[in-house]
Amino acid sequence: MPVTRYSCFKRERKVIKDRTVSSGMELQKTKKGRLFFEAAKGKIKILHDDFLTTDLIDENSVDLIVTSPPYNVDIHYGSFKDDIPYEKYLEFTEKWLGKAYSLMKPDGRMCLNIPLDKSKGRKGAGFQSVYADVVNIAKKVGWKYFSTIIWNEGNISRRTAWGSWLSASAPYVIAPVEVVIIFYKEKWQKTNKGVSDITREEFMEWTNGLWTFSGESKKKVGHPAPFPVELPKRCIKLFSFVGDTVLDPFLGSGSTLIACALLNRKGIGVEIDENYCDLAKQRLIKEAKVTQKKLWGD
Description:
Blueprint: E1 34-39, E2 44-48, E3 62-67, H1 86-103, E4 104-115, H2 130-141, E5 144-152, E6 177-184, H3 200-206, E7 210-212, H4 218-221, H5 230-239, E8 245-248, H6 255-262, E9 266-271, H7 274-287
Parallel strand pairs: 2-9, 3-4, 3-8, 5-7, 8-9
Antiparallel strand pairs: 1-2, 4-6, 5-6
Helix pairs in contact: 1-2, 5-6, 6-7
C-alpha cells in the first residue's frame, strides 16, 4: 500500500501519558479546542482540537465530510506511531463515525477514503478487511451506504511483496487501489436547491466509479502522508453545492480546505497536532491565496 496517503492517526498526535481515550488511542492534550486559523470572511476555519471531543462544531450543521481517517499501518511520524491493535482501531473508527454522524444535516453526505484492505498487523494468512469492516461499522452507527469509488493511484511499480514467488504455495494478491466510500445520513436527495459548479465533462467522468490520478508528494508538501487536492476537489464538486459547509475531521496538511477555498465552499478542518495546523495554514495562504483574519490573542 502507498505510503503517501496515510493521513490522520498517524499524522496528528502528540502523545501524552495522562490521557488515553477509551478506544485505546493516546491523543495530544490540547487544553481547550481553539480556532487556529480563519480566513475568507470566516468561511475557512482550522480548529486545533481533538475531533472526538470538540464542541466547536454545531450538530446538524455540515453538508459534506471529505476525509481520509487513520489507516493504522505502522508508519512513523514526528509525533505518533499508528500501530494499535486492529480491534482498538475499529473501536476508534466507531467513535469518530458516531461523532461525525451527529454533526451532519439530515441530507448530509460523507466521502470516506480508506484502503481496500491491509496486511499490517494481521495474525494469520490473508489481509485485514478494512473496507468491509468500516462499512459495517458506519451502518451500525446509522450511516446509510450509497456507493463506492475505486481510486487507482497507479502505484503498482512500488510493489515489493509477492508471497511465494512463482509458486501456488502462498502467493499474495494485492490490489494497488484505495476506495472512496459514499455514505449519507437520512436521505440522499438534497432538501434544498443549490448552485452546482461541476461541468458536463467532469460530471460524466467522475460519475464513473473508477478514478485514476496520482497521489501527492510528501517531499513537496512537507508531510509524511499528504492528501492530494484532486480527491476532495472531485468529491466537493460532485456531492455539494456552492456555499455548502464541508468538514474534514482529520485535516492533516490541509488539502480539503484548499479545495474548499478554491471552490467557494465553507470549510472546517479539525487537527489535533499544532504543527500540522500550521502546515495547513501555510498551504492555504500559498495555494489558495487566502489571507488570515486577525484572531483574538494574535
